[in-house]
Amino acid sequence: MPRSSVPPPASFAPPLGALLRQYAAGSALTCEPVDQGLLNRGYRLCTTRGRYFLKHHFDPETADPVAIARQHRATQRLADLGVPVAPPLTGTDGRTVAVVGGHAYALHPWIDGRHRHGGQLSTEQCTRLGALLGVVHASLERVMPAQGGVTTQRADGGGSADDRSSDAGPADRAEGAVEGADPARGADPADTFALIDRLLAEVRRHRPSDAFDELARHRLLERRALLERHADRRPPQGGSVGWVHGDFHPFNLLYRDGEPAAIVDWDRLGVHPRAEEAVRAAVIFFVRPLGTLDLTKVRAYARAYRRAAGATPSELTAAVHRVWWERLNDFWILRWHYERGDTRADPQFPAASALAVWWTREYESVCEAFAG
CA 208: distance to chain centroid? Predict the structure, then answer.
């Protein structure tokens, strides 16, 4: 999952009085932090007028009130089409974003539900999951501006030089992307080799050495060998682009009674290759603890996605290649651990690092599962 900043300290408390006055939402009874999530901060809020989800937009990449309002308009339009989302409430000033003390907040209705990973979904539920993402992509195409009015982010990471639409959002870059990578083609192996060397030096310097260091060293050396063998497979430019959720994974989908109740966290809404989002989502949902994919569930999911989104098998095959290459060059967890001293993503590393190796070995089977 693309991740790019550190949330506020646990001691941070939202200014409830000022916020609730802006929303005429009564007086606070309880306010409990929601633990899940690596970026923005959320709270389960109970007031004299009901239950809410309070979101503190802390991530500096996505905390711009104008961008947040754009996301809010998108979710309201999707809700009007029957897509399961949770649009924010409107404040007394007619806005959905409240800025207090320089911080941006939004108040949403509380949605009862639970998160489910792919291992908790039946094959039929996997089919419905793929269809849901296909409906999201098709619906965004209906409710968002034509792509001719959108310019995505420059390769140097800067903002758009020509953003002609009030609803146009810059494309985010994956956290694991190597510096200098061309986003149209993916990472350059030469840059990845340099990053691997830098991370290996960080591993050697860490004292006392522990089991994480040992695994990191093993995977870095293993990945370097894989890239040496496959360096000539850097993908060409990406495929068909369109508006996407941008971060579709189990923690951003709530289930109730076995059915999707709400897709949440639209901070990464933007214009990107749609089929790549479908592949990334499947890889996150259906990865097993040992770093393999449940290809039976992937196949059911992908068939439903293609039907709902109007995507072709060849689009999915090309997307598989690009996301495989992305994962082969992806070290965001190690960069968090060694360069930031942030260990919250460490539990994901064993499966994520093993997946790149398994995927390379089973490349053809993975392509067939997405396109068959």
Answer: 33
Per-chain mean pLDDT for the chain: 87
Cis peptide before 88 (omega within 30 of 0): no
Can you state the angle between helices 274-286 and 295-309, rounded to 10 degrees? 150
Burial of 102 (0-12, 13-18, 19+ CB in 10 A): exposed
| Nearest residue to 62 (alpha-carbon basis) of 151, 173, 183 | 173
Mean of pLDDT values over 224-241: 91
**What pTM, to 2 d.p., does this model score?**
0.86
pLDDT over 80 (residue 236): yes
The edge-to-edge listing of strands for the beta sheet with 50-57 is 28-34, 41-47, 50-57, 103-109, 98-100
Q: 136 pLDDT band (50/70/90 cuts)?
A: very high
Mean of the pLDDT values across residues 269-284?
96
Task: Write down the pLDDT at residue 169.
Answer: 33
Over residues 27-75, the pLDDT tens digits come to 999 999 986 555 668 999 999 999 999 999 887 666 788 889 999 999 9
Q: What is the 3-state secondary structure (H, E, C) of the chain?
A: CCCCCCCCCCCCCCCHHHHHHHHCCCCEEEEEEECCCCCCEEEEEEECCEEEEEEEECCCCCCCHHHHHHHHHHHHHHHHCCCCECCCCCCCCCCCCEEECCEEEEEEECCCCECCCHHHCCHHHHHHHHHHHHHHHHHHHHHCCCHHHCCCCCCCCCCCCCCCCCCCCCCCCCCCCCCCCECCCECCHHHHHHHHHHHHHHHHHCCCCCHHHHHHHHHHHHHHHHHHHHHHHCCCCCCCEEEECCCCCHHHEEEECCEEEEECCCCCCEEEEHHHHHHHHHHHHHECCCCCECHHHHHHHHHHHHHHHCCCHHHHHHHHHHHHHHHHCCCHHHHHHHHHCCCCCHHHHHHHHHHHHHHHHCHHHHHHHHHC
